Amino acid sequence: MLAIINFKAYKSSIGLNAIRLAKICEKVARKERANIAVAVQPADIFAVAANVKIPVLAQHVDAIEFGAHTGWILPESVMQAGAVGSLINHSERQIPLSAIKSTIELLHSHGMLAVACASTPAMAAKIAKFKPDIIAIEPPELIGGNISVSEAEPEIITRTTHKIKGIPILCGAGIHSRKDVQHAVQLGAKGILVAHAVTNAKNPEKALTQLVRGLTR
Fold it and tell me: Is 68 inside a domain boundary?
């Protein structure tokens, strides 16, 4: 079971706050014996990776090699900064299917993890053909809300887990309680991809502890 905490670009989770929040995630991981990774802004990867031992992911990379690519994110740069992999095709940073394929292949060529996001079971099935390490199913309309996909549209999870074998499926979008997580696991998910429920919580440690207990207990 795995929990990936997406720091996005909230004021509460960039710069010095990113380090603070990552340390909280590490504390919860150790205390609850849970597998927790964090996905942070490119500028924060080095500092976060230098301060915690839990896995750090980039939020996005581009399928480019060394060269003249001003403004693009080079996989080697995030790797050297300390990232072990990257999210791909998050609903807030969607890319064409061909680019998803190229990015997965490039990450794998560097021994990095590819965590691909999909908005529908059909898209997840298409992405699965490219063999990412993990697929996160996240209906965009539920992201950042207070109603989880496991509650509002549980069939999205079951249709995805039934279609795809051999690739762990994470559940995202609206996950905000231990009950949501437990329900997602019952439906076949192997973990969660969450942001708002932790990054903007009044007590991130308490919020994350409750979420991971849905995975571990």
Answer: yes
